[in-house]
Structures are given as structure tokens and as C-alpha cells.
Amino acid sequence: MKRVISAIALTMLSLLPVCSQNESSIIYYSPLTRIAIDIEYDELTDQAGMFCQYAERYLGVKADIVTNKSYFMLRRLSAAPIADADTSRAFVLSDKDLASTSLRLTANRTLAGINIGESDDMSEYVCQDVWQQQPAELHTALPLLEEQMQASSTAKMAEATAKLIYRLREARLALLAGEAEHGATDGTALQTALAEINSQEQQLVALFLGKRTTTTHKKTICYTPRANTDNEVLFRFSTNEGVVAADNLIGEPYMVSTVVDIVKAPVSEKKSSQTASPFTYLQPGYCVLTLTDLENNQLLSLSCKVAQLGIVRYVAPSLIKANAAITLSPLTGEILSIQHKR
Questions:
Q1: Direct distance between the N- and C-terminal alpha carbons of the chain, in angstroms, rounded to an integer
Q2: CA distances from 214 to 4, 45, 65, 149, 211 (A)
Q3: pLDDT higher than threshold 70 for residue 329
Q4: What percent of the chain has pLDDT over 70?
Q5: How many structural domains does the chain have?
Q6: How many other CB atoms are there within 10 angstroms of residue 336's CB atom?
Q7: For the whole model, what pTM was predicted?
Q8: For the chain, what is the mean pLDDT?
Q9: What is the pLDDT of residue 289?
């Protein structure tokens, strides 16, 4: 999963010891499936040019940015399931259970494998609410020469600056036509000279037309599906403040709805008083999550298996006795593979 979920950290699983001299049992948990919703949005900052009122007079175009202001715009939404630990489903393994069995536990102590080696490539996502922001652009001195800076009035300064823009454009044309007095000696030098002229021109034109800078923000909200929901406010978005809390009425609401399929154990299993083995796996349930705006436009939809909507099952004792290598999904708790040792 390559997403912008850039705020979700990747943690590798480690092979934990079965027990130490000071402990007689191990506690592990079933996984808890959460849905990480990445919200990417831009903060746009408009900075009016100091010569904006002279743009049409000297450059022949009207300045669109005439006041300084900042505002936020929603860019993209994405969602993906991630793994956590369900502490309400805890299991204890005794010395007897662990005598001839090695376990692979995740960093949050969910069961990821039985008798699997360290070389098995397994990973999990850890849910974190994070902010990511690009560094703001630093303001630099005005890109003007002595002639423009010593003008007697703002109007004269604007006129002199416009002349400098036209001189830069004439220099660019001369370079491209090969008519410059000190022309570029090769293609690389020409490209370097043109890039410098373009940069200087853009800075000067911005003094007339203004400048807009964009800073990208990212917020990750972790949602835990457990039951059917209908238009539950997940977060709000304000053009003045960006992403705000669900109860902050300054922003427009964005609602989450879920349709879940909860797995229920058969009656015969419910009446069973003895489990088959101390090692468990899950038969996960299913969830369809949708996110809509105030006008009921669907912005994203995700269908996935969900651990906490399923039921606990027990690994067959015959597999444990045979020392089979069993790999479980850290995300849903279901069995991914069973390999019998030869």
C-alpha cells in the first residue's frame, strides 16, 4: 500500500522468546482492524504585489491577487485498513502450551505465526494521528536594482521595475537567437542562463501580479468499525482553519457510514465447553465504509475484512503436534498459510 497514509509508521515484527526464567506464561491478543483515513489538504497563501495597482498600466494585465489572505482547500481523501491489538480478546499460554512451540508476536502482542522462521517477511501498520507540513517558503529581499530602489515614488519604482522586466525579456530573446554579445558556449550554459533570467523575471512580475504559495498538510484519522453506522460525523473542514474536530461547528461536516457483516458462531460451537487447542485464529467479518460530504456526495469507499467483527476459532491440535508452520494475518487474524514440516 503506497499512500499517502505518510503519517502511518511501519513497524517490523520480531521473534519474541517463548518465555524467560521469570515468567511462566505469555499473553497475546487478537488483532483489531482499524481504518486509517488520510486527509490531504492545501493551505494557500496569497500575497499581493507591492505594484499591483500598476500591473495593467505597465504590463498590460490585471492583477488577480490584490489582498493578502490565507485559506484551505481539501485535496484528497484515501483509506486503508491497519492493525492494532484487541485487548478485550486476550489469551494466556502456559509453560505446557509452549513446551515445543515457538510463537511470532507483533509489536502490539498479537499472534502472527506459529513455528515460523525469522526470515518470514511480515509487517504491520501502527495507527498514529500525525501532521505533516511542508516548510514555509522564506521571504527574500526585493529583486530590484539600485535604479528601481532609488525611484522617488512607488509609481516611478513600478515603472522602472517594468523596464527591467522588458530588458530581461530582450536578453532572453537575444540568447535564443544567438545575438547576445556574450552568448552561451554550449547547451548547458544556455539552459543555465535562461533559467536564471526566467527566475528573475518571475520574481519581478510577482511584484505586480502577486504570489500564491501552497503548503500541503496531512491528517490521519483512525476509525474502528464495530457496528452499522449512518452519517456519523468523522471530522469537519473549514476554509479558515483546515481540518477541525467533529464537534467544531466552524467547519462543514464529513460523514462516515458503515455496513458490517458480523460473523456469529454456530449454536453447536457456543455450547462447547472445551476448546480444541490454546492457539487461536479469527474468522473475520466484513465492512463497507463510505465517506460523504454535506451534499451526500460519495468521496471514498472501502471494503475490507475486519477482525473484531469475526469469531475466535482454535487451531487443530494435530497441526500443533505435527509442528506445522502457521502464518496468520496481523490485520485480520485469519490463517494465511499452513506448511507441514518434512
A1: 35
A2: 18, 6, 14, 29, 10
A3: yes
A4: 77
A5: 1
A6: 15
A7: 0.73
A8: 81
A9: 97
